[in-house]
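User: Sequence in, structure out. Go.
Assistant: Echoing your sequence, followed by the structure tokens.
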Amino acid sequence: LSCDYLELESIYPSFLNAYRCNLEKQDISELMSQYENLCDSRLKHLLNLQTSMDSVEFSSSTVASLIKLFKAEKSVWRLLRIFTKDRFSNDDSSFEDGRDVSEIITVNSNDADKWNFLLKNDKTFREMRLIMECCEQNAATWLEECSLPENLHSRTLWSATLSSLYDNAGSRSKRSTVTEMDPDAPFRQNRPLHPEDENEQERFYLWIFRYIRAGCINSAVDLCSEYGMHWLAVSLLGAVPDSGNHYVQSNGKARVPLLRRTGNRKLWKRTCWSLVVERSLPPMERAVYGAVSGHLSSTLHGCRTWEDYLWACASSRSEDRFTKLIDWLDDGNVVTSADLHNQSRQIETELFREMFNDVNSIANQRQEADDEFQATFSSIICHFILQEYENMVEQGSLAIELISADVTVKDQFCRFFCHVVLTMLQLKLIENEFEPFRIIVEHYLAVLSKNRRHLLLQPFYIGQLSSSRKSEIYAKILQGIYFFFLFFSDNLFFWFFLHFRCYGTGRTLRVLELWRNRRYRHVGNVEPSFAWNNCPKSTNITSGAGFRAATIGERPTLSG
């Protein structure tokens, strides 16, 4: 077997070891973090494999599909980790016992206090921001893999326009461009820049949007300052509730502070919204202002994937919620943490359902070509956030059959979703009597049975099933491996030893009884006797002859 195959197959015992270690620690968020890291390590290996293209075991299409699968899986584990830590962590005191019921927010409170107050006491607002956090971390991972284009390292914008103005001084230009170089000149004169500058400026705004999309406002501000666009840097800082002094490079010599935004946030937002509807501005510039101010339709100019649309919709709705709080306070009202907690004890499920409907509608209208796993993983995310845990498991059990025609990809997805339902079982969100849970675990058992290296991983997963299924599954597996292990009785005896340690003598004998009955189900009227108790004490049941005698009724010899 090639190293590539063994590297990919090693994820099966790695996931099991992580889960078994967590049974002692009882830290689900830490377990999901380990799963996330395991996916990341396999993803890096696959990316290197794709670059070298020297794999013997996998085709290029299989490697490409596995890369997409592990990227999607990593992002889902990240979302589950972040939400699980907020919803189920015993240390979360922000919403229950540890909150300060006497905390009061008024119109005189600063923006940062208002923002943190809402984040602490409004569960719906907080989960909207958690969705954004997950999407931003995924986008930040993509940014780490990329670098700014070479043409953005010149730190000069509009150079072609400036050169054109010098060259055409005193003469009429063939193309009427701006005649002044201030930032408002294109808008004020209703004239374009030089074509080269228009393209470069569009790429510049695209990268500013990508930084915002990744939650890296400071990086966007720094990039603006490198190009001398301090006015845009200050505009972006308006999105931060309490921006403070933000230091930037100035001409590469000294760090000078930008002025702190101390104006009215409502005025700042109104200004942004007036710019996003200005058709004369480039689409990506409007997308930048829309992204920082929560204007959905303009933000969509910079969005390309389902996750981008989810981030944009969550950003817009969380901004609306914050604006409503500010408006309520501006009317002279006072809000206490107890009041807001009583109103927002549970998340507003219908608000989230409406948001996901909007996201799917936008994706369908734009008909963007997402990867083959988008529908499946987006469905998992939706059901989990809506707390429809049983629906999530049902969708996963159906997706296992439909996820991919590639067996390797299908097996990896089965491994992923089996561990998703196991973590949900540990969180007591579902029961092991739930039929889709049984289907998923048994699918994974079938995956493990394909490789003899993973045979001893099966007992643990069988043990997670309901008591009514465990004995039957053990009997079925023993029937399948009997002939292979007939002359390797030490390994077969190890199976019975495992079962004996877990369940004791009585249930181990019951497994043997079921196994024997399955073997002789189609053998005429033969009714072999169960001869385990007939074996003399001196019989070596770990030998092939002794084991056959004990299980199918042959009379063992003392020498056996």
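User: And one key feature?
Assistant: Residues 91-99, 248-256, 519-560 have pLDDT under 50 and may be disordered.
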